[in-house]
Amino acid sequence: MALPPTTGTIVLFGGRSEIGVALTRRLAEGRTVVLAARRPDELGAEASRLTDAGAAEVHTIAFDADDIASHTALVDSVLARFGPIEAAIVAFGILGDQARAETDVTHALQIAHTDYLAQISVLTPLATALRAQGSGTIIVFSSVAGIRVRRANYVYGSTKAGLDGFASGLADALHGSGVRLLLARPGFVVGAMTRDLMDSGVKPAPLSVDAEQVAAAVAVAYRRGRGEVWIPWALRPVFFGMRLIPRAIWRRLPR
Asked: What is the pLDDT of residues 20-60, one digit of tens each?
């Protein structure tokens, strides 16, 4: 069922995210947009893209994903300064270096902290704030990497598995509150986050997508009132089948 039109604020946590900015651009027309990122004074290019897309206003604020102690106050300040939130897009994260993370516990924990713990630290106060508001949508980016974790990227994949479970449970907890959670599960995304990986010789996985394709699919799902979206949709039956692959074969599969 399509959502009724609203004119609340669009907040992007991860103001430099390629996918996040592309999605925000599709939702920005007539809205106040808030970009939250480290070094907010360097978000001029992103702000210009959103202004060109029809945003009524674009504001930038400081946001450190790893400073979890600051997140609740930051969410409260966004509501106080910019009014009701129509959509909160949580699009920050790191890919990390799998080979390094297998032996460097500090690096493994950094991936886990940014891609899982920090996500919970943002999502929890957002859910609380939107429950009190009685409306709004939280958009969370999981990944097919978390549906069945592969040996080739198990550190990153495990964080997405945890995030997917947390977001799915949170969506159920929000049912009936007037707040919706939209969970996006893209496949391999060809873009800034995976550029170094591909430069190292890794080939994009089958059914790969780019940031604009992900953003377009999520925007459609958002407007249709859906609770989850696979990008592309063909990945859903593919990964259902992948759950049945014996572990002895699964562990040999590439990224």
From this structure: 999 999 999 999 999 999 999 999 999 999 999 999 999 99
**How far is the C-alpha of 60 from the C-alpha of 43, rounded, in Å?**
7
Q: Hey, is 130 helix, strand or coil?
A: helix
* Residue 114, amino acid: T
Question: Please, are residues 28 and 54 in contact by the beta-carbon 8 Å criterion?
Answer: yes
According to DSSP, residue 191 is labeled S
pTM for this model (two decimals): 0.90
Q: Residue 211 CA to chain centroid, in angstroms?
A: 12
Q: Please give the positions annotated as active site.
A: 156
214-229 pLDDT, tens per residue? 999 999 999 999 999 9
Nearest of 117, 164, 161 to residue 140 by alpha carbon = 164
* Torsion 55-56-60-66 (CA) sign: negative
